[in-house]
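Model it.
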Amino acid sequence: MSTTPHRSRTWLHIGLFILAIVLLAVVVWFAIRGHTGAPSTAAPTASATASAGASADAPDATAPVSAREVREANAVRFEQLWRTYGADSTIDPKEFAHRPAGDVLKQLRVTDYTPPDWSAVSTIQRNSDYGPTGQNPACQGTTNSFSCMAYPTVGEWWVQQAWGSGSRWIEGPTVEHTGEHTATVTGVVRAILVEPGDTFHSTDTYALTPSWQDYPVSDELTFDTDGKVSEVSSNQLSPWWVSPWNQLWDTNMNRIMANGRRVAIPVQGQPVMDINPTQPIMRAPATQADLDGKVDWSLWEGMCMASCGDQQQGFTVSPDGREH
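Modeled.
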């Protein structure tokens, strides 16, 4: 019996089977490729959206700082150094009310008027003949006086004239660029002056009466090619006590600040300021109505003002009824 036809059919079946497998593999391959290669039309997930948004909003840490930004930053820092010194004039008087006098005076005392270092933001060189390193006014015409010999610089002399003085920005400094190398800086600086003097008291509560005064600022700044401040000039009245490092310290602060905002702060115990002024000082109020009623007594509301036991209007009453 011949086996040739049987073998032929067997090989035919094997060939068809292999062909079917190959075709199936091709179909599956195209199906997979078509699924992964086609662009997705599905909406992005919330996490993907948030991630993309965060990336878009995040600042570029490598972005260079512009020359304009450098000038503006230097202007702000320069003005802060140029007009800030001494006692903090921004403290609310309420923070001192009813505290021990010694604690309040300690916070307001200034004994160091050393100029700051602004070389990082400005090329302006300070003249040692101006500011606190200038000559004591008592040395003008003679250097033999005790005051001149004891306090040769005006800064040392001023420590003996005022218990504390200083200034701080209360608005600004705000920078407006007016050219490639110029800008105007505006704002308001507040000054404070604290001096000794006999004052109103009721029993053991005494009136400490500093003076505050606000000064508008409008400065014209010029910058060098590195963005540092190279020149400064003021368009507003700018006495030395709100611009202390580049002006002569004269004896006018007491007289002018006496007309500032006076607030009577009730402190516990007598304020003792162990300094020896050689020039006239601001007068402290002896009564509530003293100084033409210009003193703010609101911090004494609810306290005895006119008569408290053996104290009347700041005068001590002796057993025989006499005021002294």
